[in-house]
């Protein structure tokens, strides 16, 4: 069976809207499940292991699958997270590696050691395309992919749009670079960025060119994932972060409703998936 599974993030739900109120975990999980999400990412950079264990029973009560997002600050520290992910039943660990050598030759053994650790423990790892980590730069990540053929990505393209300050419209060369990232991606994250803002409001007229670009990238990524995978779950995380990811006005209030926007992205992605053939059996 080949299925699309759409998650949100616990980080994105704390708080989930402009009120700034942080809801208790049982209420958060009920909202997420009732909205139709399949799971929730637990971000160990924005929280900690204690939070993961506290929210776990509420996720279980609402049949939400946990996804563990790790920020290992040493090579060895990923091992404990992999064991925790196995215990939680997470489909993989999303690694935002804080071990960041400057030289490419020094980066390769870090990635390879983490991948070997993943194989030994039996929990897959994907390396998120993210700023301030080992995959910080698009060009360096493309070199890592060339050096490490089995390296798989979680594609959050918002970081590279900001990192490279891509002009709009993107050149064919730059679009080709992003295609190379998508071809190595086993999961995806949903946020719309511009060349200078990491998270745009979805319905502002001036942002529509960027919205259309990201929707095209998500279609390209899902199309390629389906080409490579006859079975399995394609995981897409709608991750709209709270302030200071979310822009605020002079009153400190967010300029859009992220909870509503996350559900809009969920529907966009489901529509794309259905247009490509939907869930199927092979």
UniProtKB/TrEMBL annotation:
UniProt keyword annotations, A-Z: Isomerase
A molecular function (GO) term: isomerase activity
InterPro entries with a match to the protein in the record: Xyl_isomerase-like_sf
Name this protein carries in UniProt: Sugar phosphate isomerase/epimerase family protein
């Amino acid at each position: 069976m080949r299925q699309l599974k759409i998650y949100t993030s616990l980080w994105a739900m704390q708080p989930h809207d402009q009120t700034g109120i942080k809801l208790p975990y049982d209420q958060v999980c009920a909202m997420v499940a009732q909205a139709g999400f399949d799971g929730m990412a637990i971000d160990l950079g924005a929280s900690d292991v204690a939070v993961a264990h506290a929210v776990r029973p509420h996720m279980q009560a609402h049949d939400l699958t946990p996804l563990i997002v790790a920020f290992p600050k040493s090579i060895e520290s990923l091992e404990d997270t992999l064991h925790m992910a196995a215990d939680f039943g997470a489909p993989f660990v999303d690694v935002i590696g804080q071990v960041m050598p400057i030289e490419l030759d020094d980066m390769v053994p870090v990635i390879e050691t983490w991948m070997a650790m993943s194989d030994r423990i039996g929990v897959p790892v994907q390396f998120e395309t993210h700023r301030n980590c080992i995959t910080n730069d698009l060009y360096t990540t493309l070199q890592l992919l060339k050096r490490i053929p089995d390296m798989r990505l979680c594609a959050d393209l918002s970081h590279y749009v900001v990192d490279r300050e891509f002009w709009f419209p993107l050149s064919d060369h730059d679009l080709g670079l992003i295609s190379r990232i998508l071809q190595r991606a086993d999961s995806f994250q949903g946020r719309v960025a511009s060349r200078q803002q990491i998270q745009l409001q979805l319905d502002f007229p001036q942002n529509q060119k960027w919205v259309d670009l990201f929707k095209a990238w998500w279609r390209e990524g899902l199309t390629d994932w389906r080409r490579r995978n006859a079975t399995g779950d394609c995981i897409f995380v709608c991750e709209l972060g709270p302030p200071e990811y979310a822009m605020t006005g002079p009153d400190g209030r967010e300029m859009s409703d992220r909870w509503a926007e996350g559900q809009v992205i969920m529907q966009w992605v489901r529509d794309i998936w259905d247009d490509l053939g939907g869930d199927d059996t092979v």
